[in-house]
Specification:
Layout lengths: L2 E4 L11 E6 L2 E6 L3 H9 L9 E2 L2 E2 L2 H13 L5 E4 L5 H14 L2 E3 L4 H5 L4 H4 L3 H7 L2 E5 L3 H4 L3 H6 L15 E6 L11 E4 L5 H12 L8 E2 L2 E2 H13 L2 E6 L2 H4 L3 H17 L3 E6 L6 H12 L4 E3 L4 E2 L4 H6 L6 E4 L9 H8 L3 E5 L11 E4 L10 E3 L5 E3 L13 H11 L1
Parallel strand pairs: 6-7, 6-17, 8-9, 8-13, 9-10, 13-14, 17-18, 18-19
Antiparallel strand pairs: 1-2, 2-3, 4-5, 4-19, 7-15, 11-12, 15-16, 20-21
Helix pairs in contact: 2-16, 3-13, 3-16, 9-10, 9-12
């Protein structure tokens, strides 16, 4: 069988050089993808339930749509959750559902939610710009060796470009994290920062890059020798590309940290250099989810249509306080991060689950609907970590008992 060109949805890099050999309704060979991509094409469809169920009994898709509509119609304030593994159109439909039902739209926390508020001059760079021109790469609170396996090899470190004619030998790599990470193996500068010390460290780097001396022997756990060496190399660079990850959220002070990193980048730009900040989007469409929700509802993370406007709050708070009385969960992988109290609260309200794979937190869902795997069986548009919209090219077709998420959400919206 000939190989089919496709887009990999194994992570938010959305690599477009992948090819798949299809035999029947199975991907038997995947070329150019990393292990995450191979698993996505070969294994994702096997992890999904085969048929819709309503109250534990097999049902037709029409019955599932009607049961879901009835459940939501009877709710006073439903929760519509997630979208980071969905298409941009599906996220739009989720927000429209929340608006029509006067409910709440919420998504898992993401570094993309925080970078949206940064100056567009800092976040407008594309991965291809980094490939061609960046000669200093900073991985800050992110480890692509675990999450985005081809990031360094395809874009940021190893490829040759205009500003990096020798590839790896032309680039300097710095890694900032709270512990040793895999990507540090390819870094010249390894800065182990104290938890919560990111803002202080970025501020110190700016001082040094701008030629001001620091009297402290250590800053946020990093020795002055390593800090000064990093700043010297950064000051010599022509284009510094920062890639920031979810570790900043784990630090508990993501906004403060990002503001300080942004000031460092602005200082570099004032010195005549190029600088950019790109989020290492955690899920395949974390960037698209954040952008669509912010555009439609004013907030990338939580939109309350019950009369209180756009606010921010963790999903656990809504569930534990009994502030929502029903839920529509769309590919809720983020639910695995729920606290025990949050999971228990979710189990007490009627729930609709659109499942790309079975989720432990949704075992008790009243309506379960298997949906097509985005990028493998379902097309549509998603957004790469750098803001580029990508049209998917699914190599497989879903079984007749499986529906595309966009189709189900559109039918549900029509019934309400």
């Amino acid at each position: 069988m000939p190989l089919q060109a496709t887009i990999c949805t194994g992570c938010s890099l959305l690599c477009d050089d992948v090819e798949v050999e299809v035999r029947g309704q199975e991907a038997v060979k995947v070329m150019a993808a990393c292990s995450h991509g191979v698993e996505r094409f070969k294994e994702a469809v096997k992890a999904r339930p085969s048929r819709p169920t309503v109250s534990g009994r097999e049902a037709s898709m029409d019955e599932a749509v009607e049961a879901a509509a009835e459940l939501l119609r009877s709710s006073r304030r439903p929760l519509i959750y997630d979208g980071q593994r969905s298409t941009n159109r599906a996220v739009e439909l989720m927000v429209r559902l929340a608006e029509k039902l006067r409910g709440v739209y919420c998504a898992p926390n993401s570094i993309c939610h925080y970078t949206l508020s940064l100056d567009r001059r800092l976040t407008g760079a594309r991965l291809d710009d980094v490939l061609e021109d960046a000669d200093f790469i900073v991985y800050w609170a992110s480890d692509p060796s675990e999450t985005h396996l081809r990031h360094a090899s395809r874009y940021a470190v190893f490829p040759r470009g205009r500003g990096a004619p020798m590839g790896r030998e032309s680039r300097v790599v710095a890694v900032v994290d709270v512990r040793e990470t895999g990507v540090m193996r390819i870094a010249q500068h390894r800065l182990i920062v104290q938890p919560g010390g990111d803002a202080e460290l970025a501020s110190a780097l700016r001082e040094l890059v701008e030629g001001r001396a620091l009297s402290a022997a250590r800053v946020a756990g990093v020795g002055m020798e390593e800090l000064s060496s990093t700043a010297r190399d950064m000051a010599r660079a022509s284009y510094v590309a920062f890639f920031v990850g979810g570790g900043l959220i784990a630090s508990g002070r993501p906004r403060e940290a990002l503001s300080s990193i942004a000031r460092l980048a602005e200082g570099l730009m004032e010195a005549g250099k190029r600088a950019s900040i790109t989020p290492m989007a955690e899920r395949l469409n974390s960037m698209g989810q954040a952008a669509v929700a912010a555009r439609l509802g004013g907030s990338p993370s939580l939109i309350d249509y019950s009369g209180r406007g756009a606010v921010e709050a963790p999903i656990e708070r809504l569930l534990e306080a009994g502030e929502v009385d029903a839920a529509l969960i769309v590919k809720g992988g983020g639910l695995e991060e729920l606290s025990m109290a949050g999971a228990e609260a979710l189990s007490r309200i009627p729930t609709i689950a659109l499942e790309e794979e079975a989720a432990r937190a949704l075992e008790v869902a009243r309506v379960k609907v298997p949906v097509a795997v985005v990028g493998v069986e379902e097309g549509g548009a998603v957004t790469r970590m750098d803001g580029v919209e990508v049209e998917l090219k699914p190599p497989l077709r879903p079984p007749e008992t499986v529906v595309a998420e966009e189709e189900f959400l559109e039918r549900l919206l029509e019934r309400l």
